[in-house]
Amino acid sequence: MTRIGGEDLHSYARPVEARVTHVALDLAADFEARHLSGTARLTIASEAGASHVVLDTRDLDVLGVSDAAGGALAYALGDPDPILGRALNVQLPAAGGDVIVRYRTDPNAAALQWLSPAQTAGKVHPFLFSQGEAILTRTWIPTQDSPGIRQTYEARVAVPSALSAVMSAEALTPEGVAEGTAEGGHRLFSFRLAQPIPPYLIALAVGDLGFEATGPRSGIYAEPSMLAAAAFEFANLEDMIAAAEALLGPYRWGRYDVLVLPPSFPFGGMENPRLTFATPTVVAGDRSLVSLVAHELAHSWSGNLVTNATWRDFWLNEGVTTYVESRIMEALYGAERAGILRVLAWRELHNEIQRLGGASSRDTVLHIDLEGRDPDDGATLIPYEKGAALFRAVESAVGRPAFDAYLRSYLDRHAFESITTATFLADVRAHLVRGDTALESLLQLEAWIYRPGLPDTAAVPRSAALDRVDAEAAAFAAGAAASTLKTSGWITQEWLHFLGALPAALDAARIADLDRAFGFSDRRNSEVSFAWLRLAVQHRYLPAMPAVERFLNAQGRRRFVRPLYEDLLTTDWGAAEARRIYARARPLYHAVVTSTLDPMLR
Ligand code: BES
Ligand code: ZN
Fold first, then answer.
1. Which residue has the CA at smallest separation from atom 14 of ligand 1?
2. Residues with a beta carbon under 5 angstroms from ion ligand 2
3. In this structure, are residues 593 and 556 in contact, taking their beta carbons and an 8 Å threshold?
4. What is the sign, positive or negative, of the torsion defined by CA atoms of 428, 432, 436, 440?
5. Per-residue pLDDT tens for 57-90?
6. Contact between 146 and 13 (Cβ < 8 Å)
7. What are the DSSP calls for 319-362, one per residue?
8. Cα–Cα 20 to 30 A to 364, which of 20, 38, 48, 81?
């Protein structure tokens, strides 16, 4: 059977028979019970003769299904699968029309994080946010949860009066509409997104939120205590949008806002349409980590406009985006800074290939095999950095003007489509290679996409600035005192490169020398702290332990938290410390973090 958008291993839907085209949510958020409850009204396009529509659900309480007139429709839930959840098979209304599912989410719905006031920056109000990618939307919305099945959506969300709701959609009632009495009353917020999107991009956040504009079509949402710092950090949003448009064509989503989440947000960023969700750990005070926003903004084209049809094609989302992120950084901050970021990422890519078992590991293939696996298994650095390296290789083979023209035309040709790797390959061949056999063999596209490791022809990024940093790291390794190193004027990324370039064997006295000279334990840049504290733990530099504990209690970003606990656990002295710190910090962390850490630390 052929499927719209390709064969998706991670959805029960059968879109060729009946396909959801629009979702209308009517939900109330209950912070005491920790659930959303209400209805999802689904518009369905079905083949003549189709009798049922198959939806995805996971941990969802389905309370009833009806047609638009309120008549009951027969439905059945399939057996639960730990990764995929349960199919919801619904009889289609005989006379056609929408299907209305009445439901309630589980307090432990994987897509929803309900934060207590203590887990927020402001400490007074609770907070809720959703995270749909990859296949978690089915834990809060009963729909066809496949990136190949695009849907428009609208929503009405009732929240406690003191809070506001934001979504990845146009806000029709930005201030909300008060309902009920002041005591126990609520506010109703309405939203609509006219562009069809994959359901993993439907997103909601509810909390005590302030807003500050950064320009006519952009701004920052954050808890009031974070707002000024966040608005300062991302003051150049309009410039970023302009740089992206110059490369990729008009921004097609209207507004671009950034929501800075409470510290327990487990990811760096999430490209929800019109409203990127971002970790507060990039609010460094000096705008040094804004490449994260360049990345999420780039997804407005690669990912949100042209979407991976299945999670095997995830590299199409992240590879193009990582390439574009670098181009935006180059346009705004110059080739030197962009080059530095590429070299840092290249080292991370090599570390990742080692972690995955070396260059022959199947998990280093771009078009990854996910049969029987959670799509999260594919969310390594491979789709990001190997993917970006592929696009840099194509750029260098055809020249930047030809590549830029191709990239833009590719995004336009497939706008609002979900495409597979095979479709991408056919597109490059039809519109860029065009039968040029010399170019085809130079590009080695099949090797890049279907074989493990990196082709020999992959260009190694270089940075003169980081070569100088390497020289200082080498001098230190050879015995020079930290205070004699030439580090003046180093930017955050030079410090990060320095920390990563130090030799594996250093005794605690040498680590202490670095700390004394450069004050690493007292730094507040999250990336520098992360790199430094790992080094400190790996070398049993105990004076940094209070900083380790502070860092693990200050934020819950998975990329920072997990490796630090793992490092502590692999020492002969740190395991008990790790368990003690974890016991206290655990309530801060999101389920995607505790689910990996609990087996190790509880
Ligand atoms: N789309 C991803 C986040 C994601 C991927 C969530 C897979 C769930 C499953 C987002 O664009 C992203 O890549 N975020 C990165 C930061 C980015 C700057 C590389 C992150 O969260 O670490
Ligand atoms: Zn991304």
1. 269
2. 318, 321
3. yes
4. negative
5. 999 999 999 999 999 999 999 999 999 999 999 9
6. yes
7. HHHHHHHHHHHHHHH-HHHHHHHHHHHHHHHHHHHHHTTSTT-G
8. 81
Q: What is the pLDDT of residue 5?
A: 43
Mean pLDDT, the chain, whole residue set = 96
Give the list of residues 6+ apart from residue 26 with CB closer than 8 angstroms, or none.
Answer: 38, 39, 40, 41, 155, 156
| pLDDT tens digits along 427-440 | 999 999 999 999 99
Ligand 1: centre distance to CA 99 (Å) = 33
Q: What residues are paired with 45 via a beta bridge?
A: 19
Contact indicator for 184, 225 with CB cutoff of 8 Å: no
Pair of tokens at residue 44:
């369905």
Q: Which two tokens stand for residue 502?
A: 């130090």
pLDDT at 173: 96
Closest ligand 1 atom to 559 CA: 22
Q: State whether the beta carbon of 385 lies less than 6 angstroms from ligand 1.
A: no
Q: Which atom of ligand 1 lies nearest, measured to the CA of 270?
A: 10
Residue 101 dihedral angles phi and psi, to the nearest 5°: -105, 125
Please give the Cα distance from 40 to 462 (Å, whole number). Answer: 51
Instruction: Give, for 408, the enclosing helix (H) or strand (E).
Output: helix 400-413
Q: State the DSSP H helix or E strand holding residue 473, giving kind and residue range, or none if neither.
A: helix 464-477
The rounded radius of gyration (Å) of the Cα atoms in the chain is 25
CA 495 – CA 519 distance, rounded (Å): 12
User: Does ligand 1 come within 6 angstroms of the Cβ of 270?
Assistant: yes
Does the beta carbon of 386 lie inside 6 Å of ligand 1? no
What's the token pair of residue 357?
């078992």
- Amino acid identity for residue 224 in this structure: P
Residue type, 74: A
Buried b (16+ CB within 10 A) or exposed e, 161-200: bebbbbbbbbbeeeebeeeeeeeeebbbbbbebebbbbbb
pLDDT under 50 in the chain at which residues?
1-5
Our answer on whether the CB atom of 134 is closer than 6 Å to any ligand 1 atom is yes
3-class secondary structure, 401: helix
Residue 231: its pLDDT value, please? 98
The neighbour count for residue 48, using CB atoms within 10 Å, is 4
For 486-532, how does the pLDDT look when each residue is reduced to its tens digit (9 = 90+)?
Answer: 999 999 999 999 999 999 899 999 999 999 999 999 999 999 999 99
What are the tokens at 542?
């105990």
